[in-house]
Amino acid sequence: MIQTDILIIGAGPVGLFTVFEAGLLKLRCHLIDALPQPGGQLSEIYPKKPIYDIPGYPSVLAGELVDNLMEQIKTFEPGFTLGERAETIEKQEDGTFKVTTNRGTEHQAPVVAIAGGLGSFEPRKPPISNLADFEDNGVEYIIRDPEFYRNKRVVVAGGGDSALDWTIFLADVASEVTLVHRRSGFRGALDSVEKVENLAEQNKIQLIKEAQVTGLQGNGKLEGVTISHKKEGEIIKETDHFVPLFGLSPKLGPIGDWGLEIEKNAIIVDTFDYSTNIPGIFAIGDVNTYPGKLKLILCGFHEATLMCQSAYKIVHPDKKLSFKYTTVTGVPGFDS
Asked: What residue ranges do the domains of the chain occupy?
């Protein structure tokens, strides 16, 4: 039985930062994650993707951010159960929770913080009849290493942040980049939209709006795509890679059966401290929902910080918490 103060379900960026905030309060943490390494989506899906909204970093690669978070929490010596999925939870007679993984590993803690991000997920795929024929032969749903596309022709499809960000990044990597979006407007960050529009005006990328990729051509390996344009009809474009970035289809998995209040595949929380309807269980990061929710890493960091304040009161109900600024007290910034 692994015992700790805060059991964190999910070792993504928000889960990792929770270790730091808890460490400032001298609370021990242990993390469970189904992936074989810490970092969540940042490590598994897009380690080379630049992130632009982390304070103090004009731009930081996702994998680099994970490395920095791991370095930041090293002094607090968190425990990890990796490659295992949190399966069941039981309330014990002493008020603590016992969480058992799909491999039978048991964990016990008075506080459980669910930081599972989007949960388990799979990419949303476009309805193209022969799509599966070219998977891993020119069709990729995730960009793990942009160098893979060095001096190649790439067609990206989508209108969200991932499609915009990767189009901007690949403009300096690939020999040719085309972004196809079915609408006239984008749903991503306004700054990214402006950058993409500027790249198109400078002829550094080709931007095709109000269109969809509806067909793929090639003999065992992708050689071209059919683009159905609202006004111009069908366009045949030669390419080496087609990357549809339509987001991920999330599922909570076993956590959805834990008796938590759920709305649209997300856990409802109280914004005072991101507590759930079960006392002692909190939900932070993309896994939760509340009025005005923004699914941003920096918002998850804020949620983790407030959550730890209430977690301390559960772990140490007889102690008074006196939090001091780390700029004044150093690390850990704690006095009780």
From this structure: 2-121+248-335, 125-244
- Cis ω for the linkage preceding 317 (within 30 of 0): no
Return d(Cα 81, Cα 88) in angstroms, integer.
Answer: 15
Reported as a single tens digit per residue, the pLDDT across 202-258 is: 999 999 999 999 999 999 899 999 999 988 899 999 999 999 999 766 677 889 899
Q: Distance between CA 105 and CA 175 in Å, rounded?
A: 49
- How far apart, in whole angstroms, are the C-alpha atoms of residue 187 and residue 167? 14
Using CA atoms, how far residue 129 sits from 24, 133, 134, 157, in Å, is 54, 9, 11, 16
Cβ-Cβ contacts under 8 Å for 84 (sequence gap 6 or more): 32, 33, 34, 101, 102, 103, 105
Fold observed for domain 125-244: FAD/NAD(P)-binding domain (3.50.50)
pTM of the predicted model as reported, rounded to 2 decimal places: 0.70
Report the alpha-carbon distance of residue 140 to residue 157 in Å, rounded: 11
